[in-house]
Design goal:
The longest helix is centred in the middle third of the chain and has 18 residues, at 57-74. Strand 4 and strand 5 form a beta hairpin. This protein has helices at residues 44-48, 57-74, 82-89, 93-101, 112-119, 127-136, and strands at 18-22, 39-43, 79-80, 105-106, 109-111. The chain is an alpha+beta fold. It has one domain (18-136). The structure holds zinc ion (2 copies). Keywords: Endonuclease, Hydrolase, Nuclease.
Length: 144
């Protein structure tokens, strides 16, 4: 029998009813579905509750921007090869192939900017989007 990994909610630390959340939703960013960086463990309240990412757009966008930042940190050079992408994302060669398939191949490899955009579901999230949500958000300030 394998050992079962115990996960804690990344917000409150409980290990009770912890669920795996995909920061970039699987429907929108299927390439990230098995990538650990995209995983966030959350208890039921912090996952499905009113201040969880599925109900609160501000929280959702905050997590997505954090993920995007991590990806840009990970891919800090301008260009990467498919092999490097596979290693950095700690993924399989078939996933790496899928990721690179629609990316333009330059002389020095794949552009990190285009790569991150593709991973995030063919879009780049911005701080401005978050500020717009924050402005409309009745819970403004609660999360800080
Ligand atoms: Zn929690
Ligand atoms: Zn979720």
């Amino acid at each position: 029998m394998g050992t079962r990994e115990i996960h804690h909610c990344s917000i409150c630390g409980t290990c009770y009813q912890v669920q795996l959340h995909h920061v970039a939703f699987r429907s929108r960013a299927p390439l990230l579905k098995n990538i650990r960086l995209n995983f966030k463990y959350l208890c039921n309240k912090h996952h499905q509750g009113k201040n969880g990412p599925h109900k609160n757009r501000y929280v959702d966008l905050t997590y997505k921007l954090e993920l995007q930042d991590k990806l840009f940190e990970l891919f800090s050079k301008d260009f990467y090869s498919e092999k490097e992408i596979q290693e950095l994302l700690n993924t399989t060669s078939s996933t790496a192939k899928k990721i690179c398939k629609k990316l333009r191949s330059y002389k020095d490899g794949y552009s990190s900017k285009e790569l991150v955009k593709r991973l995030m579901g063919d879009r780049i999230y911005t701080q401005e989007e978050l500020e717009e949500v924050e402005y409309e958000d009745p819970w403004e300030g609660v999360l800080k």
